[in-house]
Amino acid sequence: MNTPPATSSPLYRSPDIFASFPELLAAESTRHGGVSPAPFASLNLGLSTADIPENVAENRSRFWRALGVNPHQVATSHQVHGSEILTVTQPGHYSGYDSLITRHKGILLAVTVADCTPVLIFDLRHEAVAAIHAGWRGTVQGIVTKTLEKMQLEFGTDPADCYAYVGTCIDECSFEVGLEVAEQFSDVHQRFDPATGKHLVDLKIANRDQLLGVGVRKDHIQISAYSTVLHNHTYFSYRHEKGQTGRMLVCIGIV
């Protein structure tokens, strides 16, 4: 990887929580700056959509180029909405994992999202990173907690040394679920809306609380101010766009 640009571009935003670490590259893509037509307009980075593959390839090329990244240094996985964690030692595309961790410099970990919660973690002391795709199922299964426990085991990570970003996802006021889903969350993370007869789940706070629960300091956590639904002009939302939409990539790595 080359040294990334210092500021964000229309293609991505960089979390402020990591701004003090020049060795770290972290970014969350937007839907702007690509070549895909509607309904994937425009920077669709998802390999498993109905978009034309050549468009996705060009979009990915633009995204990595904007970040100063060689795409051959990226590690991704086909995600299954679970809580399996892969310790990455080589870049490439894997399958069956919703969380990736590494201490290897020059490898960029990336997860795909379009409503689910991305969580990025940086262990400052050990220079280790994690990229997590926390869908509601993964959140219920404690994927963030499990990831930090895995980092403790693999790298000696102390959560107090970590900085974390809970990224852009579906917001609480938009994430309507049935009782069968809501009852899997604590009362702190879900509420009943009598006007709609639906329960609402707050994935951002649920994942933030997993970070806090294992010892990440509150002032070391940033929660995205954006929503895939309320800010759908900038981000893809699978639910809001009824499945016909693109995907974002959220990535982190030691340069």
UniProtKB/TrEMBL annotation:
Transmembrane segments: none
Reactions catalysed, as given in the entry: S-methyl-5'-thioadenosine + phosphate = 5-(methylsulfanyl)-alpha-D-ribose 1-phosphate + adenine; adenosine + phosphate = alpha-D-ribose 1-phosphate + adenine; inosine + phosphate = alpha-D-ribose 1-phosphate + hypoxanthine; adenosine + H2O + H(+) = inosine + NH4(+)
Domain of life: Bacteria
InterPro entries named among the record's database cross-references: Cu_polyphenol_OxRdtase, Cu_polyphenol_OxRdtase_sf, Cytotoxic_necrot_fac-like_cat
Alphabetically ordered keywords of this record: Hydrolase, Metal-binding, Transferase, Zinc
GO MF term list: copper ion binding; hydrolase activity; S-methyl-5-thioadenosine phosphorylase activity
Family: Belongs to the purine nucleoside phosphorylase YfiH/LACC1 family.
Protein name: Purine nucleoside phosphorylase
Species annotation: Salmonirosea aquatica
Organism lineage string: Bacteria, Pseudomonadati, Bacteroidota, Cytophagia, Cytophagales
Gene that this sequence comes from: pgeF
